[in-house]
Each structure stands twice: as C-alpha cells, then as structure tokens.
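Q: How would the structure tokens look for this protein?
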Amino acid sequence: MTAPDGSAVSAAWSGGWLRAARAVPSPNFGPRPGAERPSLVVLHSISLPAGVYGGPEIEALFTNCLDCSAHPGFEALRGLEVSAHFLIRRDGELVQFVSTDERAWHAGQSRFRGRDRCNDFSIGIELEGLEGGVFEDAQYGVLRGLMQALGERYALDAVVGHEHIAPGRKADPGPGFDWPRLRRQLGWEARLFPFV
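A: Here is the predicted structure in token form.
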C-alpha cells in the first residue's frame, strides 16, 4: 500500500486510526502545529477509581461523560478535558480515543530534550493500572504490537514515561513498569528508552 507521497503505509491503519483498536472518539484533541509528526511516545498509568479496573470510568473521563458525583475521588476531575491516543486495559483490550495524526491532551505541562508542550509531538498511551504498580502480561503483549505499528508509521526517537517529561509533577507509570522488558520485546536501540 502506498501513500500519495510514495511512502509505504501499513494496512493496519486507516488514517491515524489503528484498525486493531476499538475506536471511542474523544472531543479532547486538536491539530498538531504546522507539519509536526509524532516522534515521542509517552506511557501513562490510570485507574478510576484508583485501583479499580475494567469499568467505564476511563472512557467516560476521556469523552467528557464522567459523573464526578459518583465517587469522592472524581471531584477533582470535574471540568477536566483530557484524552490519550490509546488505552490498554488489564485484559489487553486496546482502545483508541484520538487519531495519532492529531494532538491528544495527555502530557500537560511537560518538557523533553529542551522542547516544551510534549502533546505537540507525542503519542500518549495509557496503561490501566496504578502508578507504581505492576502491569499484566497481556498489556505488555498489546503494547509491543502497538509500538511496532507506531514505529512503522512514524519516525519515533524516544519512548518515555509521564514521569520523565513532567518530573516532580507526575510519577507514572512508575517503578512497576518494566522498561527493560519492553526494550527486549521490541528489540529497539537502548537510546530510545529512559534508564535502560
């Protein structure tokens, strides 16, 4: 398959939407500035409520439908407009909220290699889990496939955690995430990963 500019395009994609993911479009996105293409992947962890898995709350948050009165921990989320490109649930289900060609609102105030506003040039992947906790084998398997698909589509030059682009403000995915495992699974160069 060939794009109009002559470059190869994987049949895995329909525009910036990965065919293998369940699409749940979020209204929380915007255009990337200029001709910016993603070069950075940012991994996050999330659970709503904290430590509870499998419910509809994460999707509700990213689509501005979360009932903030349903749990005391949700009150701080009232009025928040956030998203990520992907969510990998504990059982390995892959959900996509924003086209990878667009800017999702996942990184907030952030800086990487001297550049601010990491949302402009990154892809955000949420792993369902607790900050600092461990993740499931199924999640690593799906993350591997997702990263390979992203690497085929974009010229990626780094994979980091939210903690690496917003130190002191964010600490996810945290020490429970196995960076050496991800690197081994992908077979990518060490320079693309933090502290591996």
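The longest helix spans residues 137-153.

The domain at 13-189 is CATH 3.40.80.10 (Lysozyme-like).

Upvote if useful.
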